[in-house]
Amino acid sequence: MLVRNFIGSVDPGMRSILSGVDSYAQVLKPGSIISGATIGVVEDSHHPKFAIGDVVSGGFGWTELGVSDGRGLLKLTDRRVPYSCHIGVLGVPGLTAFFGLERIAQLKDNETLLVTSAAGTVGATAGQLAKLRGCHVTGIAGSDDKCSWLKNVCGFDEVINYKTVGDLDMAIAEACSGGIDVLFDNVGNTMIDRVIPRMKVGGRIVVSGQVADYNKAPEDVPGIHNTSAFITHRLRMEGLVVYDDFRDFSRAKEEMIGHIMKGDLHYREHVTEGVANMPEAFISLFTGESFGRRLVQLGDIPEQRQ
């Protein structure tokens, strides 16, 4: 089948495979299409399960057109939320937040959570889902606008602007004065290392992303030094690749759609137009310019009827 994409994503995790380093995905060779989530409309089909006009989500990458045998495509029939949500708050970023809290952190009601890069889709979703469990949530972000949105819209209890605060360690200690049960980290090793001394006994560290380390050569990535706390405080640190939870995606999406419909889960999107602007949009993920899920509109978006 032939699919014309009308929305595509740029993702910070792609930085490592562009650098020649294998991660959960293989290194991209020169001439390959850069990976990314897409939403498009079927323009031609010889597949029994997909008809012309169907809207589908997939992973065609940075391209306006895609050819598929149907594997990896999901027909989007739920009209309760905009199409873009399916590669944002209901896509890999939102699902990473959901399963990072559920499976990795094993979050309990009324715990204390610290979220880094909190204004991104992963961080903002994690914080809001934790608030629905009665948790005390502190977020770290990089601008006053982001901090304001997290506190006044998403309901975070405390938000720290790491670019303007005088002493970040002191600010974290004051915001989480009783210690931290769960660190949901999207930044990297330096941030993890500075938070470890604030963790409670039995604390859990979710390694979700490493946006501060993706651009560094392997030999330049800082290490973690405060390792004695893993013994004294019985800490646990674990990363995740959300595709491991594929069988539970439908359950998670339905739960999050319910929260969106009730106004309990908010999201932001930062949309650029045109496939030629995808590199610029990608770069903005590492400069702090991006605010919300970074998407690129590749073509006309079909009318979405209930």
TrEMBL record:
Species the sequence originates in: marine gamma proteobacterium HTCC2143
Protein name in UniProt: Probable nadp-dependent oxidoreductase oxidoreductase protein
Alphabetical list of PANTHER family matching this protein: PROSTAGLANDIN REDUCTASE, PROSTAGLANDIN REDUCTASE 1
Domain Enoyl reductase (ER) residues, every copy: 13-296
Keyword Glycosyltransferase in annotation: no
Highest taxon, organism lineage: Bacteria
Keywords, sorted A to Z: Oxidoreductase
Pfam families linked: ADH_N_2, ADH_zinc_N
Gene3D superfamilies assigned: Medium-chain alcohol dehydrogenases, catalytic domain (3.90.180.10), NAD(P)-binding Rossmann-like Domain (3.40.50.720)
InterPro entries listed in its UniProt record: ADH-like_C, ADH_N_2, ER, GroES-like_sf, MDR_fam, NAD(P)-bd_dom_sf
GO molecular function: oxidoreductase activity, acting on the CH-CH group of donors, NAD or NADP as acceptor
